[in-house]
Amino acid sequence: MAGFDKVVTSYADAMAGLEDGMTVLAGGFGLCGIPENLIQEIKRRQTRDLTIVSNNCGVDGFGLGVLLEDKQVRKMISSYVGENALFEKQLLQGELEVELTPQGTLAEKMRAGGAGIPAFFTATGVGTPVGEGKETRIFNGREYLMEEAITGDFAIVKGWKADRYGNVIYRHTAQNFNPLAATAGKITVVEVEEIVEVDELDPAQIHTPGIYVDRIIQGSFEKRIEKRTVRSTD
User: Fold this and answer.
1) What is the CATH number of the domain that holds 81?
2) Is the overall model pTM greater than 0.85, yes or no?
């Protein structure tokens, strides 16, 4: 758990070095566990021509959806994009390139990228448009297609608690894609709800070791609910 102090105190410092044309990996699932303030900083900087890798693209007016408002995103690599009307509009008008990827494949692409594995074989997508143009091989009588790993110039991640050395714990389902993204960025920035003393984190409970993290910032979060469903009182 030893390391050096990675805490920054401004979002401008947290995203320093982000440039037009870069690839950004973003943790989160729907609106759960998204690095919402880091996304807002990307919007504020007006960085353009970005490739964003994320399970989804937020919703209209929140999460990654805000980056579509000024057309800062050139390409989305995602597994689910059904909650964003502006996303749909830009896609249909040819203003946004989209690479739809099966969810488990997307997760493994990030994990492989973080592990230094350049590619892997999966049966998911064989015989569908997902597999068009990709190399296939037969293993034990079954066809598999080759998927290349994903890495990014930046990874933006939302954690629950971290120490100043960058060791991170996620909370419940907010873990989702965050630890995968965290390993696959050349520069990994994590925003958390609380920065604690080093001895307050149980080493056995740490999800992302500080070796993967370059910058830590403490923020406050809206934690918006994507779809609220309540049980009938009848």
Assistant:
1) 3.40.1080.10
2) yes
